[in-house]
Input
Amino acid sequence: YGKFFRKDKPDHYINTPLFYEAWKLLKADGRWSAMSWTVKVDAPTVFMPDRLRTILATKKDDQTGVYFQNCKEVLEGFFGNLEVA
Output
């Protein structure tokens, strides 16, 4: 994996290469394709699967995908510590 740093914040890591390698392994495994949703959770994230399951029960996916805003107060509307696809 190595260490990749942000140019604007040299004390912060860029985790894209790590997640890219992880997703390659998950894709090769194939179990994800039988699931309705895939969730990426960063290690220090407090994650409550039952709560997310309740929220997703009423959501429908389509060919264009679905965007969930998880933090209205942030410029782009989400934090990357939890991603649902």
In short: The helical segments are 16-29, 49-56. DSSP finds two helices and two strands in the chain. The chain has a mean pLDDT of 79. The beta strands are 39-41, 82-84.
